[in-house]
């Protein structure tokens, strides 16, 4: 993702500012707003539905609500201070100055600003500016939905036991002190951006950071109840697939919108995204069949997600054959870490990462970043990256150093999120407990929110057979009849 300029300057027009100024590219502006909407739909309702259905019945409301709350809270924090910290004037080499992104000045086109270019003795040319021909308001919203989905992904690690009040405090703090640092460093003109670390659409900024931070937060919050850890079936597999489908299709905006234009690079990014996701899903399913003798729907969804995540750092920077390579590795490496390494490594067993975000996002994200450093094609890089002569290691010359840059960039994101997420969790716990009470852990949604996802056969409720069919309200005598549909 290319960096953005810090602050547009309003431009006066004779007779007032026209609603459709001469510099506005309607096609690019429409695509950018559509892309932002697609990414927003990945969170609301995509991950809201997926989270609410993939967890145990008693946590359906809480899990969906954590995702919904995170998205809403990020929107407000983003326009008040988060956007400028990610894409504003430099405060530190890895952080921008806070400030609001509100007002009519964000209706101005940033291409009207003069470009600032840096030239180097070795022939490299770097610039922290891009010039899409549409209002910055479109860009503020596009970047906002990326920030939102990062917190929603992170929530997947702490479902089923984190106090909602603690989550309300965690969201703005993590956005401020973790997300904005990664975004500025890699996209907003920070030191990793100028060094030439490639992160086309958030493999590091979004997925690696959320995976590491979620894993870290899971450690501090502690594990789910013993009963939940032993048995945690999804309450609605078909609804889970609906949420997963929204996530997959929404990725067209996730990766296709990052050239900031409806251009050939965006088309390549969308195609590569789908190639990799499909390949990864198939590989994960094949491995399940080979080693466990049964194809798993949940496993297929995990393979789909790891494919989408791994291609994200290089979606518009690699060729179609490379997207297949990404998919083969993203369907197998995270599968191996989740199904084999996780079960044998005591540290991973000790930390209760509810939805395996560490494997599906952190492992897949760093894998995609390294593969981008290996397979990024020079001509595609030239279409997108501000650092000239950028290329992957397989293309020779200076390309070999790119892999080391990718590893170093990933190392910074990992280290920062481990430390700062820990500080945030410890600080919150001094004010409000990170963890739910034992009573809440036992009962679930009804104790936490006073609401249940499904009233049918709810705890303490009477089942009216005259209205709902042949079964009595004593479900214990009807297990043979309703066992196939009753998931708790």
Automatic annotation (TrEMBL):
SUPFAM superfamilies: Ammonium transporter. One of its GO terms (cellular component) is plasma membrane. It comes from the Eukaryota. One of its GO terms (molecular function) is ammonium channel activity. It is a multi-pass membrane protein. Keywords: Ammonia transport, Membrane, Transmembrane, Transmembrane helix, Transport. It holds the Pfam family Ammonium_transp. NCBIfam families: amt. Belongs to the ammonia transporter channel (TC 1.A.11.2) family. This is Ammonium transporter. The gene is LOC107914485.
């Amino acid at each position: 993702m290319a960096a953005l300029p810090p602050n547009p300057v309003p431009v006066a027009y004779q007779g007032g500012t026209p609603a459709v100024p001469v510099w506005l590219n309607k096609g690019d502006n429409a695509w950018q707003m559509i892309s932002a909407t697609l990414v927003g739909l990945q969170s609301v309702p995509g991950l809201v539905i997926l989270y609410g259905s993939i967890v145990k019945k008693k946590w359906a409301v809480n899990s969906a609500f954590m995702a919904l709350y995170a998205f809403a809270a990020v929107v407000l924090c983003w326009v008040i201070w988060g956007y400028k910290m990610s894409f504003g004037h430099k405060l530190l080499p890895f952080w921008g100055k806070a400030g609001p992104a509100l007002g009519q000045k964000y209706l101005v086109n940033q291409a009207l600003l003069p470009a600032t270019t840096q030239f180097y003795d070795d022939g490299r040319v770097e610039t922290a500016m891009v010039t899409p021909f549409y209002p910055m308001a479109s860009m503020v919203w596009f970047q906002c939905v990326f920030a939102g989905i990062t917190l929603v992904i992170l929530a997947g690690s702490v479902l089923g036991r984190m106090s909602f009040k603690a989550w309300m405090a965690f969201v703005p703090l993590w956005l401020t002190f973790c997300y904005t640092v990664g975004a500025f460093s890699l996209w907003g003109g920070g030191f990793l951006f100028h060094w030439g670390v490639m992160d086309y659409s958030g493999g590091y900024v979004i997925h690696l950071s959320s995976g590491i931070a979620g894993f870290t937060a899971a450690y501090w919050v502690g594990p789910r109840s013993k009963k939940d850890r032993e048995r945690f079936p999804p309450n609605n597999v078909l609804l889970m697939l609906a949420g997963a489908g929204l996530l997959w299709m929404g990725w067209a905006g996730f990766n296709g919108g990052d050239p900031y234009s409806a251009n050939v690079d965006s088309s390549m990014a969308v195609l590569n995204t789908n190639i990799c996701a499909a390949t990864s899903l198939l590989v994960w399913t094949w491995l399940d069949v080979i080693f466990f003798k049964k194809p798993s729907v949940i496993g297929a969804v995990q393979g789909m997600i790891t494919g989408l995540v791994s291609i994200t750092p290089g979606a518009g920077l690699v060729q179609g054959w490379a997207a297949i390579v990404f998919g083969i590795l993203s369907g197998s490496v995270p599968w191996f870490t989740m199904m084999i390494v996780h079960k044998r490594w005591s540290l991973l067993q000790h930390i209760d990462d509810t939805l395996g975000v560490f494997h599906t996002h952190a492992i897949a994200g760093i894998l995609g970043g390294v593969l981008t450093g290996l397979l990024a094609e020079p001509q595609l890089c030239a279409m997108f990256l501000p650092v000239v002569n950028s290329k992957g290691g397989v293309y020779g010359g200076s390309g070999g150093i790119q892999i080391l840059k990718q590893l170093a960039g990933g190392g910074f994101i990992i280290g920062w999120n481990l430390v700062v997420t820990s500080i945030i969790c410890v600080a919150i716990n001094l004010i409000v407990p990170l963890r739910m009470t034992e009573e809440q852990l036992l009962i679930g949604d009804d104790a936490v929110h006073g609401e249940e996802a499904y009233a049918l056969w709810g705890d303490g409720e009477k089942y009216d057979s005259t209205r709902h069919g042949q079964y009595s309200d004593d479900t214990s005598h009807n297990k043979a009849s309703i066992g196939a549909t009753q998931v708790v």
